[in-house]
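Tokens for chain A. Residues wanted.
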């Protein structure tokens, strides 16, 4: 009975989380026509969002958790530097190529180490 109850709770929690997520998205879609993207508030919100993402990436690089913690910090910073160089080099910025290069370098390091 306990297993059935925990499965019920897991599916129920998933349903509630999905309903909350889609309700917020629906509200965003309804409000999107009324938002002025050039307003000071929207520019501030964009800046805060980018700052949070940057802080999380830096934290992930310098203080990782899990398997990434086994890679020395010098290698992690070096892989990020190579990825940034790939992204900003050339006429057009290439974020997909930068992500691919960083991921590939980490995979190569992991395979070579083991």
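Reply:
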């Amino acid at each position: 009975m306990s297993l059935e109850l925990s499965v019920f709770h897991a599916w129920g929690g998933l349903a509630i989380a999905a309903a909350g997520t889609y309700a917020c998205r629906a509200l965003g879609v309804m409000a999107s026509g009324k938002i002025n993207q050039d307003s000071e508030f929207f520019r501030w919100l964009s800046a805060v969002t980018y700052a949070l993402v940057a802080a999380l990436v830096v934290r992930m690089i310098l203080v990782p958790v899990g398997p990434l913690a086994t890679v020395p910090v010098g290698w992690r910073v070096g892989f990020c530097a190579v990825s940034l160089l790939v992204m900003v080099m050339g006429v057009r910025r290439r974020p997909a190529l930068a992500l691919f290069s960083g991921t590939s370098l980490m995979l190569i390091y992991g395979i070579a180490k083991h």
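Residues 12 and 33 are 33 Å apart (CA to CA). Residues 1-35 form one domain.
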